[in-house]
Amino acid sequence: MNFKDFIKEKMILIIGIALAICSIEILLLAYHIGILVRIYCAVIVIFVVSLAILIEYKRKKHYYNELMNNMRELKEKYLISEIIKTPNFIEGKILKEVLQDTSKSMLENVNYYKNIQEEYKEYIELWIHEVKIPIAASKLIIENNKNIDQKDNQSLQFTTQETSRLYNKNEIMRSIDEELDKVENYTEQALFYARSNAVEKDYIIGKTNLKEIVNGAILKNKTTLLNEKISIELNNLKSEEVYTDGKWAIFIVNQIIQNAIKYAKKEDKKIIISSKEKNDKVILYIKDNGIGIKKGEITRVFERGFTGENGRIIGQKSTGIGLYLCKKLCDKLGLGIELNSEKDKGTEVRIIFPKNSYMILK
After folding, report:
1. What is the pTM of this model?
2. CATH number of the domain that 245 lies in?
3. Total number of domains in the chain
């Protein structure tokens, strides 16, 4: 609080006091009061008013300086009304009441929208669980039809035309199955995205086998991997015990494998998965030989909605959500995630798991 600004604010009072002193002096002069008395009266008034202004300045300066210091140190600045003391001057009391009312109104508004968001999240989760039922039923129908065709093919003699018809039917079934896998993956992505802001309500941290996490993610993509003729190499992948939530970890690895599939080259497609123990951590490496990422874009791959040059490739549809969600979930679960890539040579993603139960969840 600046003294100069404070005096400017008191200028009307000071001018009023000065006019009052002049009036008193004129009045005393009219009654032929001695000069010493007149000076004494003027000095007393000036002294009392100056002392009052100085005391008020000191009191308000102390209060407002403390208020500003608390504001600078407070991370959640909207809580300032809860920690400031009630001052002993009227403007400060009014200010505190205004801050408290504002804070209360803001919290009520936040809770209102938080409830709306929670209701929407619950609806999305319910919708996703419901839509998974027809997806699973459709995949079961396709699997059963595949089995019927295989049995018929083994037991019956077919003409060339019938054989061609069965082959086309199997190809159609495989294509539909692959598209259903994509639908299932997108619905799962939507489900985890809806839950990503409240991971702490849905995770169970415990010892989890790293190999089981990787196998779970590969299993989710088996149809696409077979159809796209992409080979998976498990190179020195150990059955390490790591501390994480298995369900969320499978989802993260699954997103990375899907990216590797999406941006694979046309020939000699492969994904190499390995692990390495380092101090109290286990690093999972997922490397592909796909089209890679431009050097200038690597630092932005974890941004929401960022697709870069790859997202504009003809025939590729990219939302820019997958890696963003991986990074967000890793941060929430206390995992590390890093990415290196070279254009036209491939991409390597590293996920760092803790080997002990001590972890900081955000």
Report:
1. 0.63
2. 3.30.565.10
3. 2
